[in-house]
Design goal:
This protein is mostly helical and about 100 residues long. The chain has helices at about 20-30, 35-45, 55-80, 85-95. This is Phage I-like protein.
């Protein structure tokens, strides 16, 4: 089936469930920054990742490794893995001011 479809014409979709209050906060923060919610969320999620355009597969994996290694080390030092997912979410929302 995928062989017959043009992969570039299919846009992947990401859906997350958020409360109405979270939606309003995202909408307000994005508006204050002159961005759409999509632009704001993508910038927050991908803002510190390197551009991969024109990179070979090996270069892209190295760039990804450079981004992830410090985060993995931080997690090991802080024992983040011992926290619940809800605890991590609360901390990250508090850190982000959301």
């Amino acid at each position: 089936m995928w062989d017959t479809l043009d992969c570039c014409s299919i846009m992947p979709r990401l859906s997350i469930d958020i409360s109405p209050e979270e939606h309003q906060k995202l909408k307000a923060i994005a508006a204050l920054k002159g961005q759409s919610i999509k632009e704001y969320v993508l910038n927050r999620a991908l803002g510190d990742t390197p551009a991969l355009d024109g990179m070979s597969e090996g270069e892209a994996f190295k760039a990804l490794s450079n981004v992830l290694e410090p985060r993995i080390e931080q997690a090991r030092r802080d024992r983040v893995f011992g926290k619940s997912l809800d605890d991590i979410r609360r901390e990250e929302r508090k850190r982000a001011g959301v």
